[in-house]
Design brief:
- Its EC number is 4.2.1.51.
- The protein is of the alpha/beta class.
- The chain folds into three domains: about 80 residues, D-Maltodextrin-Binding Protein, domain 2 (3-Layer(aba) Sandwich), CATH 3.40.190; about 80 residues, Periplasmic binding protein-like II (D-Maltodextrin-Binding Protein, domain 2, 3-Layer(aba) Sandwich); about 110 residues, ACT domain (Alpha-Beta Plaits, 2-Layer Sandwich).
- Helix content is about 30%, strand content about 35%.
- The protein contains ten helices and 15 strands.
- Strands 1, 2, 3, 4, 5 and 11 form a six-stranded mixed β-sheet that branches. Strands 8-7-9-6-10 form a five-stranded mixed β-sheet.
- Helix 8 packs antiparallel against helix 9.
- The longest helix is centred in the last third of the chain and has 12 residues.
Amino acid sequence: MSQTPSQNVIAFQGEPGAYSHQACRLYRPQMEALPCRTFEDTIEAVRGGRAELAMLPVENSTYGRVADIHHLLPESGLHIVDEGFVRVRISLLAVPGTTLSEVAEAMSHPVLLGQCRGFLRRHGIRSLVGADTAGSALEVARRGEKALAALAAPLAGEIYGLDELAAGIEDRQNNTTRFLVMAPQPDFSRRNNADGESAMITSFVFRVRNIPAALYKALGGFATNGVNMTKLESYMVDGVFTATQFYADIEGHPEDPHVARALEELDYYTSSLNILGVYPADPLRAAQLREQGA
C-alpha cells in the first residue's frame, strides 16, 4: 500500500555524486537526494512513499535513449512533471596528492570511458571498467592508490574527497543528458519554466490499431494541425515483434485547440493512448533553436 510521500526527498539511481545526483542538485536544490541501486528501486522509492519525486535519465545527446527506461515509464504509475538537461562534464579524479603522471589506470562506466578516449590515449592511461561513474570514484577513494583514478562528475570528487587532476576531458564538448522529474500525481496545469516562458511539452505512449497505414494516419493529425513532434521512438512490448509501442513528445498543452484536435485524431487510430506528463519545456530547447538559427 502506498504511503504518504516523504516530503522534500527526490530519489535517483546511482551512488552519491552520479550525474543523476547532479541533476537533482540543479533542478531540485532544496530537496534531499536519495540514492537508489536501480531505476526500478528509484521508482519504487516514490511509489512506496520514501521519496516525493524521482529523477530519471531518458536520453543522451551522444548515445541516444537510456536502455529500458521507456519500458519502465508507462508501467511506473508515475507522471512526468518537469524536465532538465545536464551537461556531461567529465573530470579525472584521484586520491589527494596524486599528480597526473602517476595515474596508470582510469576507472569508470564504459560510456564515460568511451567519451574520453583522446585524453586517455594522450596521457598513456589505461581504461578500467567500473560499475558506474560515482561508484568508480568511491572505489578509488577506498583503495587509496595513486596509480588509479576515476572518470566522473566533479561532484563525485567533492563527495569522496578526491583531487581533480583534469577537468572537461570529454572528447565531445556538447554531450548532454536529458532527465525527467516524476511524481505520483499528474500536474496538467500551465506553468512557466525557469526563464519565465510558458512553452509546454506533452509526453505520451500509444499503440496503433492493426489496420493498414495506421501509424501514417495517426501521425497525420499532428502535421495538419501544426503540432511539432520533437521525439518519436518505437520499441517492442514484451519481446513480441508484432507488438510495438511508441513514445512521443510534442510541443504544446493538451488543452491547446490544435493539440486537442491532433490527439483526438491520434486516439481514433490507436488501441491505447496514455499521457505520461505535461510539463514546462526546459529553456535549453529554445536556446538550441536559437543557436541553429531556427
